[in-house]
Amino acid sequence: MEDGYQNRTAFIKGAKDIAKEVKRQASKKVGRSVDRVSDEYSRRSYSRFEEDDDDYPMQGSQDGGYYRGDSRAANDDEGGHSDSTEGHDEDDEIYEGEYQGIPRADSGKGSLGGGPESMAAGAQQFRDVSVSEAERRKDQEELAQQYETILQECGHGRFQWTLYFVLGLALMADGVEIFVVGFVLPSAEKDMCLSEPNKSMLGLIVYFGMMVGAFLWGAMADRIGRRQSLIISLSINSIFSFFSSFVQGYSTFLFCRLLSGVGIGGSIPIVFSYYSEFLAQEKRGEHLSWLCMFWMIGGIYASAMAWAIIPHYGWSFQMGSAYQFHSWRVFVLVCAFPSVAAIAALNAMPESPRFYLENGKHDEGWMILKQVHDTNMRAKGYPERVFSVTTIKTVKQIDELVDIGTDTPVWQRYKLKIMSLSQQIRNNILACFSPEYKRTTFMLMAVWFSMSFSYYGLTVWFPDMIKYIQKQEYESRTKTFTKERVEHVTFNFTLENQIHRDGHYFNDKFLNMKMKSMVFEDSVFEECYFEDITSTHTFFRNCTFIASLFYNTDLFKYRFVNCKLVNSTFLHNKEGCILDFSDDFNNAYMIYFVNFLGTLAVLPGNIVSALLMDKIGRLRMLAGSSIISCVSCFFLMFGNSESGMIALLCLFGGISIASWNALDVLTVELYPSDKRTTAFGFLNALCKLAAVLGISIFQSFVGITKAVPILFAGGALAAGSFLATKLPETRGQVLQ
Question: Which domain holds residue 193?
Fold first, then answer.
């Protein structure tokens, strides 16, 4: 064993000496390439590696295994067996070095200490990968130029407009999802007895789901296709939106909304990438901006449906006290319609031809481009025009096949496929941080984060500030009664927004009535009778109840703070929380109306950005809109009334939408097709994380100070606009 080890060490040392000599001689010759040096090293060191350095054929073995640049397979094709192995079968083949205990080059165990054959095979494989990547990059550049020419020939017409409305439904579903929880929360919090922490989690859970979904489906779309990934993601959204309208418990509702968010999270990264690959250079910026209007339409749809459905109390039914289906659940169900419609329409649309061509599927890509051409020409009245393209450049594929034998169990096959897909997705994500794209990715991360932090933080802070102003105004009208004595009186009307201190109530009846924002402090209730009481924000503090009876009320224990109950009885208390829509009738309409106006206000910004995107460029649009949005933030200091806050909300939304449109277009155009949705999904996931942080931070300052949220939002937008100017301009460039 020691002799074998010494022989092996001497052999490696001799090989290194030969390599040094070759490099020394090569340095004297001008123009001699590194590849030729490596080739000379291989020829002089190892006699069995004699194939051409520029030819790396894909070899397939009979048992289904695949090898890229495998030296053993190449030698078999060339008849290059050594004399020592001639006449042997491949399975029993004796190779040089086996007697020394050196593993085969293809055994998967070759490391730096694996012998000269494994070292040469590793060097050969490294050169194979480098050459394949270079060829793939060259193919992608040629395809990008040819693809742009083909899109010019296909023209812009009926096909693109049909796809525009189909993908618009998917984007509309994303806009609806953002508003659903906010609209149902006032009703759901009573229907499911939600505490303040639970309400906050329900408001944020959709963003967590969308964050996961954007990352997952964006990466998947680069591997299995845009159309297929979008259909799967929308299907998940539709299924769990449907379930969430029927489940009764808070935990199950939260879970369904989380998975619904995971599904819809893939909408934005896939939709923009998908549509951009059907648009020619001069149309791309404008029509991607027009597509953004469907997010606004989704918000308007959600506001209108909430306005039309939730206050209609008759649209509900219940089966005992265990199952209740109120009108807000009907609203949740209706909000799933855009997603369902998008799925149905997508089944009639083709996959992106650019995706097929990037993955070496020439015929499929050619057929779709011919379909685009023929559809547009027929619509324009030129059915006789023939699609002149016969051959399209396809990108060289890197061997990623997994050798799965026929005797492998089914579950293991799926496991291997999933592991292979996961590895490919991981490589794609890491590629976004390669030296070529690292700077672009980090700059876009900063811009996405700063814009999302300020935008979502302010858009939630605005309604909360409006509620706070309404609450202050409501509290200013509170009536206070002290030391009143009431005997033998029947109360059968609504008591609202009152404070009673040091009162004494004897033999009084409270029947079939509502108590809204009522507070009784240091009072005595003697021989009183309470029946059919419905209460909201009503509390008894430091009160004494003597010989009183409570029948069929919702006056639960938590409403009695430091109270004494002497010979008092509770019979048939109402179970759970009681949903009384009339309590928030005006507030509900105000919430829907404010969101409707805020969403509608982005229409001018959408129109302006669409018309100017290809004229002034993406960077000017992004930086200019961000700067104006930053300036508009400081006007918030003057929003001291409800109407003033609504006006400022509309102003901010109308200005900032242009920067969002420009950022979407820029993100699509800065990455190549095989990484486009992966990068977009990653950045959109970061956007949702920033939204969660912005909402949480800004909400904590409601009623405390305006200065901190304004400074945070203004600073983030200023930083984002500055960083945006450092990004490369993509106007007038072909789609990578």
Answer: 148-396+409-468+584-725
